[in-house]
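Run log, item B.
One chain of 268 residues. Sequence copied directly from the ordering sheet:
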Amino acid sequence: MPGEGQANPRVILGGVTSAESADVRWVYAFVDRPRARCASAGAFWTAVTGTRLSEPRGEHGEFTTFLPDGTAPCVKLQGVDDGDGGAHLDLCVEDVPGLVERARALGARTVAPHDDWAVLASPGGQLFCAVPWLGETVRPPVVAGSRLDQVCLDVPPSAYDAEVAFWSELLPGWTSRAGSRPEFHVVAPPAGLPVRLLLQRLDAERPASAHLDLACGADVAGVRARHERLGAVLVAERPHWTVMRDPTGGTYCLTGRDPRTGGLPDAS
């Protein structure tokens, strides 16, 4: 959803002007949490990301941005009225209608159109937003050994192939490849963009959802301990990632990927 960025927005509202103008220029990862828990979510995630909260925005003050020092933001918080929340992507472009048109041609549907941005749903039901690019260029640094750099889409088996095809085609210039396990598929952005996409095929049919992942490199245990001091709790330990629950009840993962590159320990 829209929010704070740098000045001089470059927005084209008259439809598709070129394929390039509808390409993604920046990406935001959204922490979606019940509105009543947003104060707790803001306190936890600002500590985790080394940021400060912006002033609230939106009709009900439901949007805030995690502001780093000296770089562009790439994480935001949204208070939601229904459900327990999760995560979603904001895709920032110069030509919002062009991106909406491209997404719809690939099977997405418009959920909520606005004057210069739109909420959409992928073919499998994953919500995401097309928003104006405000000139953001410099990604935030690694903070205390970790970097929030991935939104993981949890996809039911019946929708998995269609979701992989949709996101791979929606994001030209991104690298679409098989993940480290059969149930994973990575859609990684060009160098410089701050957030990548992981699709995870679930074991059973259930509604689509999403969660956040932090790359921690070899220090998953150290990052976990720091998060636990901030109020998070352990849910499960896996060979290459650790599932956590933040103080608001939202789940997220700590991974062994390199926080500088996003790659696995034996890859770039």
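Observations after the first pass:
- The longest strand covers residues 26-34.
- The chain has four helices and 16 strands.
Flagged for discussion on Thursday.
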